[in-house]
Amino acid sequence: MIPLTFFLGSVNPQVVWAGRSGYPGLDQINIQIPVGFWNAQASVIVPVGCSVSLLAADSNTGVGSNTVTLPIAAAGGACTQPSFVLDPSVAQALGGQAAVNFGMLSVSQDGNQTTAGGSFYSVPGSALAADAGSGSASAGSCIAVPPAAYQTTGLSAGGSITVTGPAGQQPLASGDYVNYGGMVAATTIPPAGGTFTFASASDQYATVGPFNTAVNYPAPLVWTNQNSIGVINRAQGVQLTWTGGDADGVVAIRGSSFAAPGAQIPSASFMCSVPASTGEFTVPASVLQTLPVGGGTLTVENQSSPQAISAAGLDIGYAFAGAVFTVNTAYN
Question: How confident is the model at residue 37, as a pLDDT?
């Protein structure tokens, strides 16, 4: 009896049937997948990939359901999502292991701070399998992300990691031999970007073997309406605009809110993925209303395509570069 609106990525598919399924206790809703694909010039834009989001919302109140993801390939066959490191098929395969070893390296500009570094850790395979559909979204999609709780164990990459870029080479210090680097000089990243190479040497005490991984820092993105966002009305959605960035890359939009202590839903987050070339995106009200009322953050991030880290002791690893912008906001 509740009128529903569906969101398949950023479009609204038509409901062609809603009612009893013929099985006791089971209702069925059929929706029509529109013809199209993600294209900024297309009048109908349906994202394709391994994590296209589907969400239902109460048409009267706008309150949304949980988010599920569907694999959609425009030409049929297996879906592909080459820009994502943790493809669902990879997550499922690794999910059967007792532990999965991760590695991450990055160079980024966050406001006035420039950072370079990495971290290495192990997570239970069961946690990876459970989280496989909640960590990424196909371009043009948004997903609501519940709080994640699992234990991580640090892995050592030895005592020496360096990063070499247009401004030269510098070591990435570590206090625990698990997390490396931190803030670096602003001149590390030139205005036009460039290539950065992370390297480690052989170390008898390291869990992770030596590696040499290069990543390209794209031309910087500018979040043009950043200063106009302070209070977000969850029932209205929020529009974001930007210029520049990696035209072939994606912009990740992330938001989180934290309710008052003792609230039924203490915290929640969302993540949207958008082709950088579009220059704008509106996070729909159905996604924002999965967050509790309270203070939080909103982040716009333009990343390069992840580059694989090939090293003994790692099941999966990636390096990336990009620009990150974060503002504090209130979700009302």
Answer: 61
Residue 78 falls within a domain, yes or no?
no
| Residue among 132, 325, 315 nearest 242 (CA) | 325
Burial (0-12, 13-18, 19+ Cβ within 10 Å), 126: middle
Number of domains in the chain: 3
Query: Do 235 and 293 fall within a single domain?
Result: yes
- For the chain, residues with pLDDT lower than 70 are 35-45, 81-89, 129-135, 146-149, 261-266
Given this model, what pLDDT does residue 43 score? 46
- Quote the tokens at residue 162: 């360096």
Report the C-alpha gap between 308 and 322 in whole angstroms.
16
Q: Same structural domain for residues 212 and 225?
A: no
Backbone region of residue 305 per phi and psi (left: phi > 0; alpha: psi in -120 to 50; beta: other values): beta
pLDDT at position 103, please? Answer: 93
Same domain, 142 and 195: yes
* 330 within a domain of the structure (yes/no): no
- Residues 284, 165 share a domain: no
Q: Looking at the structure, do residues 314 and 193 belong to the same domain, yes or no?
A: yes
Per-residue pLDDT tens over the stretch 179-208: 999 888 888 888 888 999 999 988 888 999
Contact 290, 268 (CB under 8 A): yes
**Do the bridges between strand 113-124 and strand 153-154 make them parallel or antiparallel, or are there none, so unpaired?**
antiparallel
For residue 191, what are the domain limits? 88-218+309-320
Please report the pLDDT score of residue 313 as a whole number: 94
24, 43, 72: which is the final residue of a domain?
72
Q: Which tokens go with 318?
A: 């990636």
**What pLDDT sits at residue 84?**
52
Q: Are 213 and 312 in contact (CB under 8 A)?
A: no
Helix (H, G, I), strand (E, B) or coil at 277: helix
Rg (CA), the chain: 21
